[in-house]
Amino acid sequence: MKNFDLNAEALCNDIFGTLDRAQEQTSEELPLREYGQTTYVGHGIAQVEGLPHVQSEEILRFPGDRLGMAFNLDPHEVGVVLLDSSHGISAGDEVQRTGRVLDVPVGNALLGRVVDAIGRPLDGAGPVRTTQRLPIERPAPPILDRAAITQPLETRLKVVDAMIPIGRGQRELIVGDRQIGKTAIAVDTILNQKGKDVICIYCAIGQRSSSVSQIIADFRQRGAMEYTIVVAAAGDDPPGLQFAAPYAAMSMAEHFMSEGRDVLVVFDDLTHHARAYREMSLLMRRPPGREGFPGDIFYIHSRLLERSTHLREDLGGGSITALPIVETEEQNMSAYIPTNLISITDGQIYLSPDLFQKGILPAVEVGRSVSRVGGKTQLPAYRAVAGDLRLAYSQFVELEAFSRFGTRLDEATRKSIEHGRRVREILQQSQYEPLSSPEQIASLLAVSNGLVEGIPLPSIRKVEQIVRRTMTQDLPVLCHEIESGKKLKPEDRQTMIDTFRKAIDRELHGNG
Q1: Using one digit for the tens of pLDDT, what is the confidence trace for 393-436?
Q2: If 0-12 CB within 10 Å is exposed, 13-18 middle and 19+ buried, where does residue 337 land?
Q3: CA-based R_g, the chain, Å
Q4: Which residues pair with 371 in a beta bridge?
Q5: Distance CA 59, CA 175 (A)
Q6: Which residues are known catalytic residues?
C-alpha cells in the first residue's frame, strides 16, 4: 500500500510537470490569439466586437485573407477600416488580430517597383523581397536632429529654379485648379533627378488608374524607374488604402534618409487624401466640422509633412524633399485644405488657369508663388542673373493688366511691358525638355541684358536655342564653374553677353 502511494505521487508529479512544460512551450512557441466577430460591414469599413487588447492601427485579418486596420477603439467594439474589398465579408465572420501595426517593406528591393499602400506588388513582377519593414506612422525627427537646408534640388525648369528654388529637405506645395499641369511639374522634377543620386517616390492618391499607368510608362521610357518607387492607391481602391498611401511612401523614404541618401517624395494629391479621410471618419460617425472634415484634418497632413527634413551630418546627412500637390476650385486658395497645407509647407508653386488657357506653360504665376527656404540653396550664378528678374516680372504683370483698359502709356511703361513679354516667353518650357543650370542661366542672362529686345515674340525661342547651344559648346569652362557653385564674376558675365550677341548676329542676321 505504501509503494502504491509512492507510485501515485510520482505519477501525479510527472503529469503536473508535463502540463507545466507544455504551458511554457505553448506560451513561447504558440502565442495565444485573439478573435473577434464582425457585427457590421459597410463601404470600406467594418465594426468588430470581442478584441479587448487590440492596438490603434493594428492589422486585422478577415476571411479570405482580407486585411483591415483598427481605426476606432470604442469600449464595446472596434471600428475597422478595410484595406481590401468588402465583398465576401459579412456580419458574423471571424476576425483575427495579427499583433502588428500597419507597416510596409523598405529598402533597395523596392526601386523600380509599383506597390500599393501596404507594399503589395501591382506590377506583376513577383513579390517584393526585402527583410526590413517600418510602420507607416512614425514620429518626425526632433528639431535638434535637423540641419540647415543648403543643397538645391534642381527641377531643370527655368521658372522654378530661377524664381522659386527648392532645397533638399524642403516642403514645397504645388497648388492650382485641376488639369493645368500640377502633375507635369512633379513628373518633370522626378525625371530630372536622373544621375543626381536622388531616390524618388511617386505616391498617387485617388488618381485614375489610366493616368497612373501613363506616368509609369513615361518613367520607364525615360529610365526613371531605376531610382523611383511608385506607391499607388487608385480612386476605386478602398478609402483605407488611399489614407495609408502617403504615410507608407514617407516610411519608405525615411529608410533611405537614415542611410544618408537624398529622397524626393511627390504626393499626388492630398486633396483626395483629405476626402478619403473624411469619408472614413463620417462612416465611423466621427463628428464633422468645417466642410464636413473632422477636427484633426490639419494634424493628418502636418504629421506627414513634418517628417520631411535634412538630417545632421553625424546622423548621415540624408534628406527628404516633399512636393505635395493640392487641387483648388475656381482658384480659391483660401479653401480649407489648401490653407491648411500652405501653413504647413515652406512655400508654394501656384499654377494659374489663365496662363494655362493662354498656352503659357508651365502655367506658374510667379507673383503668387514663393519659396521660403530655397533661395539660400540656389546656385550663386542664379542670384547674379535672376536677382531682379522676379520683381521686374511681377511689375510687368501688373502693368499688362493695367494696359488692357486702353489707357495711353508712356514710353518707359511701354518698354517695361515689351521687356516683360520677352521674359515670359523665355520662361516657357515644354514638358520633358529639361535644361541644365548653365543653359538656364544663359537664357536668363540674354533676356535680362536686352539681347532679345526688338526680336518678334515668335522668334524668341529660336534665339534662346542659339544662346543655349553657344553656352554649352563655346563656354564649357564657365558651364563647369556654374555647376560647381562658383560665383559669376563681372568679366564672366560680359564674356557671356559678348559671345551670345555674336552668335545671335551670326545665325539670326547672317552677320559674320
Answers
A1: 888 888 888 777 766 778 888 888 898 999 999 999 999 999 99
A2: buried
A3: 29
A4: 347
A5: 34
A6: 372
Output the pLDDT for position 196. 94
pLDDT tens readout for residues 19-50:
566 555 544 444 568 999 999 999 899 999 99
Percent of the chain at pLDDT exceeding 70: 93
Identify which of 153, 156, 154, 157 has the alpha carbon closest to the alpha carbon of residue 364: 157
The grid coordinates listed for 86 are: 468588402
pLDDT reading at 177 higher than 80: yes
Per-residue model confidence (pLDDT) at position 2:
44
**What is the rounded average pLDDT of the residues 58-75?**
95
Closest CA to 95 of 59, 61, 68, 51: 61
pLDDT at 296: 94
In whole angstroms, what is the distance from residue 484 CA to residue 88 CA?
60
> Could you read off the pLDDT of 194-246 as tens digits, one per residue?
999 999 999 999 999 999 999 999 999 999 999 999 999 999 999 999 999 99
Residues 6+ apart with CB under 8 A from 481: 492
The C-alpha angle 223, 379, 365, rounded to 5 degrees, equals 75
8 Å CB contact between 416 and 391: no
Residues in Cβ contact with 85 at an 8 Å cutoff, skipping those fewer than 6 apart: 66, 238
Residue 34 identity (one-letter amino acid)? E
Q: What are 103's strand-pairing partners?
A: 135
Q: What is the dihedral of CA 18, 23, 26, 29, to 10 degrees?
A: -80
433: exposed, middle or buried (Cβ count in 10 Å: 0-12, 13-18, 19+): exposed
Mean pLDDT over 285-293 rounds to 93
Which ranges in 112-208 belong to alpha helices (H)?
158-163, 182-191
Instruction: Report how far residue 392's alpha carbon sits from residue 398's, in angstroms, rounded to the nearest whole number.
Output: 10
HEC per residue, 36-59? EEEEEECCCEEEEECCCCCCCCEE
Length of the chain measured in residues: 512
User: In this structure, are residues 149 and 377 in contact, taking their beta carbons and an 8 Å threshold?
Assistant: yes
**Half-sphere exposure in the Cβ direction for 284 (13 Å, CA):** 27
Question: Reduced to 3 DSSP states, what percent helix, strand and coil does the chain have, rounded to the nearest 5?
Answer: 45, 20, 35
d(CA 367, CA 423): 14
- In SS3 terms, 177-189 reads as CCCCCHHHHHHHH
pTM: 0.91
Residue whose C-alpha is closest to residue 349's, from 329, 333, 360? 333
> Which residues, in sequence order, are bridge partners of residue 94?
37
Encode burial over 258-270: b for 16+ CB neighbours within 10 A, e otherwise: eeebbbbbbbbbb
For the ranges 57-61, 115-119, 388-392, 444-448, the lowest mean pLDDT is seen at 388-392
